[in-house]
Write a structure and sequence with these properties.
The complex is a heterodimer. Chain A is built from 11 helices and no strands. Chain B is globular. Chain B is 33% helix and 23% strand. At the A-B interface, helix 7 and helix 8 of A face helix 2, helix 3 and helix 6 of B.
Chain lengths: 288, 341
């Protein structure tokens, strides 16, 4: 009849949620960290030149000198995956970073100022959101021309509205709180309130969103490259490799499987991080 | 004593959808330098709205008429940047709920320092030292260790002390305290009241204390204003209000205070409900609930001095009747709005 069992039952689910969130984030960060190291040290890790064509080893299966086998042009799949991953990851991360830098100020200003400013900023954003993401990217590339950098920018064009909307809605919630009024009552300037008080309190959901978006960005990059709109051969990109492997899928599935796995693992890592962060920021687990 | 704040026939209206809500109606009031003035009334009677009007923090949907002269300068219609210069410097405010009025992402000490740096050209270090001293002054133990803590590491009473430290950081001339003790338990409440009293003593700060707690008023205030449904109905020194309330609302309010002698379960109440402010009664807004209602009550009773320091707005009062007579005469003589108070 002591108070202890009650206390435990109240605390336990919350602790569990935090622990589970922490674990997910940790695993995600560990995987991603490894992948980033691989991307950075690609030239040291790759056993062969990723672009070296050797007619003598066309479509060779898995073996000691070529752990992941070789492709239709006799290029080492492992080396190509490592270098391709480097390109794909840079595009994915870069696109989210660009979208973040552009989208966050837009959404913050729209949500904080409200009224006219809000309308002027958010209507075009809504229009962009209404277009299908991949089609939008393809249309942009059709105008400007293919390439990794263009793919990166197209993906950020897709993401700016998403991030702007997320930060805007949390800005609206934060702005209505008393401490913002308190900061006003202390005579802080609007800009300072927006940047120092509203932004730090509103940024959480956006960071979660951004980490999930990075996973998607990797997929979009792969899709664009697969369609020949992203990285241009011979630059290895995971999408380009998938496209190459498609023709020899039945004879040499490893050409297709390993880039596919690389995409899957990376997306998993981003999603684990996003999911874990979300659980930690919202320990009651109300959403989802 | 000179008046630091003159509120002259202030009206605050809110546009909510298509309806016009009259939150503060024709309030005139003078507050002297160094006094602690209590503004009492039930929730929604316009106390907080009036305070927000004073500090210029009403939402955009609000429309203010009349004049609010602070140290001789009219605050109504003052440009934003000038108003901002006053906020947190000459006029500052303590909010009701210390749990929500501090930024959860900001070290408590930095919030104090921010107030200083918003108004004084001092460097980070100086502001920090000053903030530390303030935290110490408002009675935060181990202020140095507490400086970097986020608000949620502090108890409610401690947080309210931090809020007060931010409010007094620049030694304001006028401190608006909006129910500063409502969210606190009784022990902490009295400590916070002591702190406010101490502030007045050391810095000669004028304090406008907004509360619905007559006990707090009795402990702290020099004078009291009673508001009902947006109208100021009575102003008097605190002993006067408790000894000889004139307005029927004040009388009913005091009669409703439970006493130890009272039978259990028998709380006295004021019959009826607060009027809808989007469609208030035409004259005295208390009239529908008033036991002394008469035909005159359909006209707004001007507030007038019954005794030199006791103002009341009720047709039962001869002062009000006389004031209504003179202002009617003034109006017929072609003069603009008469000064009735």
């Amino acid at each position: 009849m002591s108070a202890t069992p009650i206390a435990v039952s109240v605390v336990a689910p919350r602790r569990f949620a935090i622990d589970s969130g922490r674990r997910k984030t940790r695993i995600g960060v560990a995987i991603l960290g490894m992948l980033v190291l691989i991307a950075i040290f690609a030239p040291l890790l790759a056993p062969h030149d990723p672009d070296a064509i050797e007619s003598g080893r066309v479509l060779r299966g898995l073996g000691f000198s070529h752990p992941f086998g070789s492709d239709a042009l006799g290029r080492d799949v492992l080396s190509r995956v490592i270098f391709a991953f480097r390109v794909s990851l840079s595009v994915a991360v870069g696109s989210v970073v660009v979208a973040f830098v552009v989208g966050i100020p837009l959404g913050l200003v729209a949500g904080y100022r409200g009224g006219w400013t809000d309308t002027v900023i958010m209507r075009p954003v809504d229009m962009l959101l209404a277009l299908p993401a991949l089609l939008l990217a393809i249309a942009l590339i059709a105008i400007v021309g293919p390439g990794s950098l263009i793919a990166l920018l197209s993906i950020s064009v897709i993401y700016v509205p998403i991030l702007a909307r997320v930060i805007r809605s949390s800005t609206l919630v934060v702005t209505s709180q008393t401490f913002v009024e308190g900061a006003r009552a202390r005579g802080a300037s609007s800009r300072r309130i927006a940047v120092r008080h509203v932004l730090p309190n509103a940024i959480g959901p956006t960071i979660v969103q951004a980490s999930v978006l990075m996973g998607f960005a990797l997929q979009i990059e792969a899709a664009l490259s697969f369609l020949g709109l992203g990285a241009q051969p011979p630059t290895p990109s995971l999408g380009v490799m998938l496209a190459d492997g498609r023709d020899v899928l039945t004879q040499a599935p490893w050409v297709e499987i390993f880039p596919g796995l690389a995409i899957a693992i990376t997306v998993l890592a981003f999603n684990l991080i996003g999911d874990g962060l979300r659980e930690r920021l919202d320990p009651r687990g109300v959403t989802r | 004593m000179t008046a630091i704040l003159e509120i002259d026939r202030v009206d605050v209206r809110f546009q909510v959808g298509n309806t016009d809500v009259s939150a503060v109606s024709d309030v005139s009031l003078q507050i002297s330098e160094g006094e602690i003035f209590g503004l009492v009334g039930e929730s929604g009677c316009g106390k907080t709205t009036l305070a927000l009007a004073l500090i210029g923090l009403l939402p955009g949907t609000a429309e203010v008429q009349g004049a609010i002269r602070f140290q001789g300068r009219d605050l109504v219609g003052l440009p934003d940047d000038q108003m901002r210069g006053l906020r947190g410097d000459r006029i500052s405010m303590v909010f009701q709920d210390p749990m929500t009025s501090l930024d959860p992402c900001f070290a408590v000490g930095d919030q104090v320092a921010e107030t200083i740096r918003a108004h004084r050209p001092v460097d980070r270090r100086t502001a920090r030292d000053r903030a530390l001293q303030l935290l110490h002054d408002v009675g935060i133990p181990e202020a140095g260790r507490r400086y970097g803590d986020p608000p949620h590491h502090l108890s409610g009473g401690m947080r309210q002390r931090v809020v007060i430290a931010t409010a007094v950081a620049n030694e304001p001339a006028l401190l608006l305290a909006d129910e500063p003790t409502t969210a606190l338990d009784v022990t902490i409440q009295s400590q916070v009241l002591d702190l406010l009293r101490e502030l007045r003593r050391t810095h000669h700060t004028t304090i406008l204390l907004i509360t619905h707690d007559l006990g707090v008023v009795a402990q702290l205030c020099d004078r009291v204003g009673v508001m009902y449904a947006g109208q100021l109905v009575e102003v008097a020194p605190v002993e006067e209000i408790f000894r000889a309330p004139r307005h029927p609302y004040t009388q009913a309010l005091l009669a409703a205070l439970p006493t130890a002698a009272q039978k259990r379960g028998a709380l006295r109440v004021i019959e009826g409900r607060v009027p809808d402010l989007s469609d208030p009664p035409p004259g005295c807004r208390f009239a529908p609930r008033c036991p002394h209602r008469m035909t005159e009550c359909d006209r707004v009773p001007p507030i007038a001095a019954e005794a030199p320091d006791h103002l009341v707005a009720c047709w039962l009062s001869e002062a009000t009747q006389a004031a209504a007579g003179t202002s009617a005469a003034e109006r017929s003589a072609g003069r603009s709005r008469g000064a009735s108070a």
